[in-house]
Amino acid sequence: MLSRFQNPNLSSISKTNIKLLRHLLCNPLCTLTEPTPVSEVTESPELPNWVKFFDTKRPEKAVLDEDFVIPSLANWVEAQKLRDPSKAVKRPLSETADTDDIDKVCRILKNGYPSLENAAQALDGCVSDLSNSLVERVLKRFSNEWVPAFGFFIWAKAQTGYRHPPEAYNSMVDILGKSENFELMWEMVEEMVKIGGGYVTLDTMSKVMRRLARAGRYKEAIDAFRGIERFGVRRDVLSLNTLMGALVKERSVEHAHEVFLEFKESIPLNPQTFNVLIHGWCKPRKLDIARNTMEEMEKHGFHPDVLSYTCFIEAYCHDKDFRKVDEVLGEMKDKACEPNTVTYTIIMHALGKAREITKALEVYEKMKRSGCVPDTSFYNSLIFLLGKAGRLKDVQEVVEDMTNQGVKPDTLTHNTLISSACAHSQEEAALKLLKNMEEESCKPDLKTYAPLLKLFCRKKRMRVLCFLLDHMFKNDVSIEGGTYALLVRGLCSNGKLENACSFFEEMVSKGFVPKDSTYNMLIKELEGKSMEKEKKHVEKLMLEAKEQEI
């Protein structure tokens, strides 16, 4: 097995980076991924980011009872084989609760072996049939921990009879890009080129450009597009719009405009190209430039469409300028351009956030009269607004109406309902909704668990808290820096300092560098309780994390 990892022909990844990986496996503090705040909510792609269906209001403090479990849900919770809360999220290798190959692999990777070879020896023979599905799920579970993900990827590639499909390479490219290991990311792309057979696609290069833009490396993202044909991907309007969209999303519409000017004569454009720019200029409220872009759109032979006008409506809604919203709607009517579900959702949500619930519901009636059929995103927004207003019975009626209209609740629907239940301290209702997701085969995501973790930190329900962390892992939801920060701060606020210290140590051991505010909060609480030994340990951990960041 070891000879496979010593064979230079196994991979085109440089020897320097293999040495780096071995060092990182010995010292996982080197994984310096910037924590992603749990509060950052990613909505439906059709809706703007500011349309958030989560409330952060803090209910009154709960009674201490760390072992308490809702009686009606006790069997479901107990069936998950809970860990000892004092061990935080660490899994002993001897644990035998889960016997399938995926959990065996993940338990091994979580044990932090001193070298790649040792990890390989432990992995060797643990999987009876290495499948594409298994690899995909393991990479997903470690999508925020590039060291074990990359180590597993290399080990799997060396297994006889197995070959990584393009999807696995794309996942690894994204993981490396997310952690800003761009040298390794590019080496992975080069390896895909050598494999040939169309391994590198627009999906691959989209991940590359988006991760570079996310890191603020705008010029590198643009250079990637300029040289995209070297990787066998066409430099056309689809790839152009992808790049411009990535730049706009990361608040660099100026760079997107430069790209537009550079390629508008050599690449045939489409309406989406202009809509990306219109949206980009509307975000920072440079509405005059957005209007000029709309005029240029018409000069190219394209009529502004519902997406074009919705960009302006979104900007005015964000500023609560509903008079301007009405003006744009009037302009759309004059141009025979009907609002769509996204337009109505944005307006309704903005009115709701402005505490104009009655007017928000009038939008719903107006939408139905126009013949526009509500979709899942519209219902999600309506559920959020009613839940935030405390109209929980109305929420249930909307859910029933949603089902009657043949609109299937999605993950965001359940997340919105869970968030509403948690905001009103309804423990049983919140957990039952999570259980319903499981029964309906609706896959939870990070936003599913955030309000639940906050609630049970406040309630000091350590047993349920550990259940939730197990549930996340088993649903391939990777625990990232923002989740650890949430747990440390939540437990700190409620006097569970030993548990807070355990999560802080786990956070650092995974390579996440805690924010100063999280660290200072923990130190202050430890000082207040005269826990000098724990305080010194936390100080040492923070110093090590900072040194590795440098």
Describe the structure.
The chain has 550 residues and is mainly alpha-helical. Among the domains are: 409-478, no CATH class; 480-549. The protein contains 29 helices and no strands. It starts with a helix and ends with a helix.
Going by helix content, strand content and strand pairing, the class is mainly alpha
Note the gap between the termini: 35 Å
Helix content: 55-70%
Number of strands: 0
What share of the residues does DSSP label as strand, in percent?
under 5%
Keywords: Repeat
Pfam family, one: PPR_2
GO molecular function: mRNA binding
InterPro entries: PPR_rpt (IPR002885), PROP1-like_PPR_dom (IPR033443), TPR-like_helical_dom_sf (IPR011990)
Salient structural properties:
550 residues, mainly alpha, globular, single chain, disordered N terminus
List the helices and strands and how they pair.
Elements: H1 2-6, H2 15-26, H3 74-78, H4 101-109, H5 116-123, H6 132-141, H7 146-157, H8 166-178, H9 182-195, H10 202-214, H11 218-226, H12 237-249, H13 253-263, H14 271-282, H15 287-299, H16 306-318, H17 322-334, H18 341-353, H19 357-369, H20 376-388, H21 392-404, H22 411-423, H23 427-439, H24 446-458, H25 462-474, H26 481-493, H27 497-509, H28 516-528, H29 532-549
Helix pairs in contact: 4-6, 6-8, 7-8, 8-9, 8-10, 10-11, 10-12, 11-12, 12-13, 12-14, 13-14, 14-15, 14-16, 16-17, 16-18, 18-19, 18-20, 20-21, 20-22, 22-23, 22-24, 23-24, 24-25, 24-26, 26-27, 26-28, 27-28, 27-29, 28-29
